[in-house]
Design a protein that fits this description.
alpha/beta, FAD/NAD(P)-binding domain, 3 domains, five-stranded parallel beta sheet, 19 helices
Length: 477
Amino acid sequence: MAQRMLKFVDLGREMPQKRDALARRSDFDEVYRQYAAEKAAAQASRCSQCGVPFCQTHCPLHNNIPDWLKLTAEGRLREAYELSQETNTFPEICGRICPQDRLCEGNCVIEQAGHGTVTIGAIEKYLTDTAFEEGWVDAIRPVTERPESVGIIGAGPGGLAAADRLRRQGFQVTVYDRYDRAGGLMTYGIPSFKLEKDVVMKRNAQLEDGGVEFALNTDVGVNMSFDDIRERHDAVIVATGVYKSRDIGGPGAGLGGIHQAIDYLTASNRVGFGDVVPEFESGELNAAGKDVVVIGGGDTAMDCVRTAVRQGATSVKCLYRRDRANMPGSQREVANAEEEGVEFVWRTAPKGFVGADAVTGVRLIHMRLGAPDQTGRQTPEEIAGSEETLKADLVVKALGFEAEPLPRLWGAAGLEVTRWGTVKADFRTHATALPGVYAVGDIVRGASLVVWAIRDGREAADAIAEALRDAAAVAAE
């Protein structure tokens, strides 16, 4: 083992410098600065190179983390990047938005020993950003072109990961998406302070330069049928994600000024691209000068509250029915939000909204945590007589997402779905009940992580490649 490793006893954990909270409130630039080469090498050298790397085991992509940490510590950055790219289609994205505290870093052996985890995500980001700067990110150039084609519905992480994998093997790939830019929620759902958009656009450009065809502004079931796509291609991947927002009712739920998180975040991201967004220009989806209340406790809620701060809201409050320890969002994101001035109103739930034509307040009730439910989480219970009204000019509902009814929207009765509306697919091959049709990502799993969608896309691509090669071999006999 190289002398450069095992430095965790003498060297403490150190993240890249975080920009001052006051400064970052005024822009959408990323929160964390980049490592310098020496700092990245030093932090990588803290890896213990343990015999059973739990970081790798708990990564959905099973990235070769100890190996590329060792290469980074030795200054062999190009080799480190190439090794990270072998198992991960988008390491620069996972390094930024994966919840490392729950996956690789949260299971780091030296973290369990009390020495502080290796900063895996920050080093992964550093490696790929360096690779782009140095020109190490190779263009997609298949050794042999194949005649078979694959249509992918959805240009999010699952669909793009499959497109990359299939194109590298020479298959002809067309990606269909309802939006005008590829990337799915990476483009329009996640704010730039977590994932700068040029990072996503670079990968989109790499795919397009490598021969992947994008059919954007194509809404399947509206301006193109699902059957047409199946007829055009030898195989089809459904990678639409889940975009149907969960909702809450109650008195006043139809008042103006109450919006879904996806609409609010999409408008903000479009403005960041320089698009003209009438709903933003009119103030409807602009938090400037408003008292903002966001309902929810996941990462989408964190994206909304931190966006509102940057838009110049007068105040930003987040309502969540459980406490801090039980919220589903990243604790790192909660800490960042608090630093930026967001107020969390724990153990509260909305009961309705007040106002004439537009919302002026949220009626809430305080909660206590009762007995655990079947999942082990304590069940929130209302405290009688604890209602109050919270001032609000803009309310954003960030309650999660559900699957759209694809069989009905697409006229695809044979596309089997679960009772939650997600598509049924084999957990190894990702094949659905329809011949030649596969499904990956959130449309199968429900709302989940980008890294799981990448894994699904890669696995489905490999299963399709094997099936098409086998079919070609049989036809040639």
